[in-house]
Amino acid sequence: MSEMLNVALPKGRLGDKVYALFEKAGYGCEELADPGRRLVFESPEHGVRYFYVKPSDVAIYVERGAADIGVAGKDILLEYTPDVYELLDFGIGRCRMCVCGRPGFRDDPGRTLRVATKFTKITRDYYAGLGRSIDMIHLNGSIELAPILGLSDVIVDIVETGATLRENGLCVLSEVCGISARFIANKVSSRFKYDAVTALTARLRETIEVEK
Ligand code: PRP
Hints:
binds 1-O-pyrophosphono-5-O-phosphono-alpha-D-ribofuranose, alpha/beta, 6-stranded mixed beta sheet
């Protein structure tokens, strides 16, 4: 049993898509057909034990070894820089990290730019790269409200369909980076469960290629 691979999946729509890939790769788990209130799902025949956590927590489980492997958005990996191996780009959960604001907004270099975001490291790195000093405003959600109410000049946030921006009279001003779901592994597990991690990675890689 200790040789089972513990797999942290992100709760929600992305997690469902990711599990579908694991299933296609030959790592299905019967217990997931009827989840009930359970939190952990085992497939002894395939040597995997799945559990769903908040998407932003996957990297913590994997970094600390509570999960051997997991799937996390590139946004989380860039923001928290967990000490894990990034093994595959799943190419799903695609979205963009963008600077957004009111249409026609012009940055006045003579003033400090007020930027609201949940992603403070990504934002700091981006503006540092531009040599632009900013006043960082850290928010935990509903970031789009900030420029609407004058709390900030712009925001740095995830744009997927663009609907949230459109419906709130905002637009993309520039793109910071592209985001997609990544397959990550704990560094110690990658050594001690080398065969299992390598086999699963290879099967997932083949499955992703077929899906492309
Ligand atoms: C994200 C992001 C935007 C929205 C973009 O929020 O912060 O608000 O999705 O998606 P769209 O381009 O398809 O409209 P999320 O739903 O993850 O919740 P949050 O407000 O807690 O960040």
